[in-house]
Design goal:
single chain; 462 residues; alpha/beta; Rossmann fold; Transcription Regulator spoIIAA; 4 domains; 6-stranded parallel sheet; 5-stranded mixed beta barrel; globular; binds 5'-deoxyadenosine; binds iron/sulfur cluster
């Protein structure tokens, strides 16, 4: 933990007379800590956008802040446990500065609601993912009256389309195109914490992506819990992707996440058609057993999933693939687990996000018996991780001798004599310093690879 310079906190007693408010306004400092998925990181940028418009400064230094918000995740119990642990640390900040405002926003706010205030004395504000516009007024009210604020209504229409997110300068940006999820997979809390699916209008998204390109972003990821459900008038997600690709032809475009039930041929063909749409698809499979997929309410079979994979590999031969896998879902036996290992070997993903099943209240599976022992869940997860590590390594080693275009992101974290960048397939490549800078496109030849990283050298500067 860093040293806390308490003198930098803004004493809230001074928020009284009008002139003082004006004076202080410019000093109001907001610090947001983000947990969980990319949607949450994109939401933090939206929150920063709302707060900046209301006269707040955004700080990355917690010691400098008058307001601390934790943007939280509920997808697994561990994610919530980390935030609750963090709250006990933040208690110490508040003890030293009783005027500090502490808020919980995001999925945990939506799930735990008032409990966060009644059970965690340190929390002043609780706001769900569709209530961020109310942050400034709830803070004002808290300061004026001492009343703690809670806003957890879910919306059928809120997309924050008009809010300009405040992003860190850099190469990559997230761009949220839809919110919520109507899939109700039996293990997943997201439909309860983020509400119903709704999409931003297509022209709002293309306008924002053009602005991002102007600002210098080179690699933009379109985000949604299930982007394949995107709808704007007559336009579906493939149309949106094509419109973005045309609007910013120099920028790499990615997207996440897709659901296998509605990943269309049109989408695969659109990815193949545009040079600047990354040949990278993240398609969560969750399990290789049809019985488990049915219990998970995923609405597809292994056969359907493999058909999509076949089409993807046929139409986009150099595609990079990744997935999500859950080990130890209710009733999963050794045969089911073996089928998961089998589908991994058959698809040969480049990467995977792998989790142990964690029961979540409200979900359909909460009513099932969480009957796979913790040790077995762990053992199966380790086998899944090990298999994926081997496949990733083999795939990366097979790229030795091949050439790729990377976009340089900066100096390697491990050596200041090396640069790192990413391929179209989202693989990190390390190359020796060669005079190029963050944002430059560099053609590289791969000469080494392990399960996580490629190593190479520049062959010519674009
Ligand atoms: N337990 C474990 N993993 C989960 N995921 C979602 N809900 C749970 C849960 N209850 C995983 C899924 C999903 C990813 C975002 O998180 O694999 O695709
Ligand atoms: Fe959760 Fe399923 Fe929706 Fe993904 S598609 S957010 S796993 S309910």
């Amino acid at each position: 933990m860093e040293h806390r310079d308490l003198e930098k906190y803004i004493p809230i007693e001074t928020f009284t007379g009008e002139t003082e408010i004006d004076d202080i306004t410019s000093e109001k400092k907001l610090y947001v800590e983000t947990y969980g998925c990319q949607m949450n990181f994109a939401d933090t940028e939206i929150v920063n956008g709302i707060m900046k418009k209301n006269g707040y400064d955004i700080t990355e230094n917690i010691d400098d802040s008058a307001i601390i918000l934790l943007n939280t995740c509920s997808v697994r119990e561990m994610a919530e446990a980390r935030v609750l642990q963090r709250l006990t640390e933040i208690k110490k900040y508040k003890k030293n500065n009783p005027n500090l405002v502490v808020g919980i926003i995001g999925c945990m706010a939506e799930r735990m609601k008032r409990d966060l205030i009644t059970k965690k004395g340190v929390v002043d504000l609780v706001l769900g993912p569709d209530e961020y516009r109310r942050l400034p007024s709830l803070i004002d009210n808290l300061i004026d009256t001492g009343e703690k604020g809670i806003a957890v209504k879910l919306s059928r229409v809120e997309t924050y389309d008009d809010i300009m997110p405040v992003r860190k300068e850099g190469i990559s940006a997230w761009l949220s195109v839809m919110r919520g999820c109507d899939k109700f997979c039996s293990f997943c809390v997201v439909p309860y914490t983020r509400g119903r699916e709704r999409s931003r209008p297509l022209d709002g998204v293309t306008r924002e992506i053009s602005a991002l390109a102007e600002e210098g972003f080179k690699d933009i990821t379109l985000l949604g819990q299930n982007v394949n459900s995107y709808k704007s008038g007559e336009n579906d997600f493939s149309d949106l992707l094509a419109a973005c690709a045309k609007a910013v032809p120099e920028v790499r475009i990615r997207f996440t996440t897709s659901h296998p039930q509605d990943l269309s041929m049109k989408l695969i063909e659109t990815i193949a058609l545009y040079n600047n749409i990354c040949k990278y698809i993240h398609l969560p499979v969750q399990s290789g057993s049809n019985r488990i997929l049915e219990l998970m309410k995923r609405n597809y079979t292994v056969e359907h999933y493999m058909k999509i994979m076949y089409n993807i590999k046929n139409i986009i031969p150099d595609v990079t693939l990744s997935t999500d896998i859950i080990s130890g879902f209710c009733t999963e036996n050794d045969d089911d687990h073996k089928m998961t290992l089998d589908i991994m070997s058959e698809v040969r993903y480049d990467g995977a996000y792998m989790f142990k099943y964690s029961p979540r209240e409200k979900t359909k599976a909460w009513q099932y018996d969480d009957d796979v022992d913790e040790e077995i869940k762990t053992k199966r997860l380790m086998e899944i991780v090990e298999l994926q590590r081997n496949i990733s390594e083999e795939k990366n080693k097979s790229l030795v001798g091949k050439e790729f275009e990377i976009i340089v992101e900066g100096i390697s974290k491990k050596s200041d004599k090396m640069l790192f960048g990413r391929t179209d397939g989202n693989k990190t490549v390390i190359i020796p310093l060669n005079g190029s800078e963050a944002g430059d496109k560099v053609k590289v030849k791969v000469n080494k690879g392990n399960s996580a990283t490629l190593f190479g050298e520049a062959v010519s500067l674009n």
